[in-house]
Amino acid sequence: MFAIAIHGGAGTLPRADMTAEREKLYRDGLAEALDAGTAVLERGGSSVDAVTEAVVLLEDNPVFNAGRGAVFTLEGRNELDAAIMDGSTLAAGAVCGLSHIKNPVALARAVMEHSEHVMLCGAGAEDFALSRGFALLPRDYFHTPERWRQLERIRGGEAGLSALTISHVGTVGAVALDSRGNLAAATSTGGMTGKRFNRVGDTPIIGAGTYADNRSCAVSATGHGELFIRNVVAHAIGARMRFGQATLADAVRAVVLEELPAMNGEGGVIAIDRNGQVVLEFNSEGMFRASRREGEAAVIAIYR
């Protein structure tokens, strides 16, 4: 039995602003990443390989807020964060504040597999990348006109516009269960449009935006990062399962639909348990999401 789920961000564009052409771009991107992760699992590959492959493709797709197409800080930079976790060993790797790495999730995996650390930041993370043979790309690789326009709207103080309004669209992630019963999770993001002071959200924080444990589930989150950190969302879902005997669905709903809204936290999660049950839940207008279980057709959705 294998299964995989991916997301491309919550807090989705309002239906009224979603053109047919734009929706097709998102759906095609989700389908490509889902197919790539599924192909890994179908040939007996590991859940870690599957989530890596899926997230790399999402990072390479400029419609999402990760890798190329990431949002800009107030100073006009890209600061990229990512994390990955192996549920069979609880090994994890994370990076934050990158500006020159094409695929942050691949570097996070290198931290997990080739260092004694869990999280590396900024210039130090990129020094480690060089030691592992990664190339440093010029900053203009990550630049897209749409993300720059979003920054200009924030800088201009457009009425009614907030960083949360336009930044959720695109944080990416994947969770998977492989045929050996091992879980994995990975998440990658460009953060929040117009962010300052090297702000870091929940994506690279193990237990907040990313978590995997074979004893419970794998989770990748997207949304208002500060609230996901304060609620330790990804770990809280697994803890409800491990220590409270909750089902995956009940654990996810309690956290996403009760605990987060009580603190005005917006967003969602994708989660999968060791039995291959998949839950994709959110408290925002929508969440770009897709999933597939062995022997079943793919499901791709944006709104409810």
Question: What characteristics describe this protein?
Answer:
single chain; 304 residues; alpha+beta; Glutamine Phosphoribosylpyrophosphate, subunit 1, domain 1; eight-stranded mixed beta sheet; four-stranded antiparallel beta sheet; 12 strands
Walkthrough of the structure:
It is a single chain. By secondary structure, the protein is α+β, with helices and mostly antiparallel strands. The chain has one domain (3-303): (Glycosyl)asparaginase (Glutamine Phosphoribosylpyrophosphate, subunit 1, domain 1), CATH 3.60.20. It has helices at residues 20-42, 47-60, 104-114, 122-131, 145-155, 163-167, 225-230, 233-244, 248-262; strands at residues 3-10, 80-86, 91-98, 119-121, 172-177, 183-189, 210-212, 217-223, 267-273, 278-282, 286-293, 299-303. The strands form 2 sheets. An 8-stranded mixed β-sheet has the order 4-3-2-6-5-1-11-12. Helix 1 packs antiparallel against helix 2 (47-60), helix 2 packs antiparallel against helix 3 (104-114) and helix 8 (233-244) packs across helix 9 (248-262). The model has no long low-confidence stretch (mean pLDDT 95).
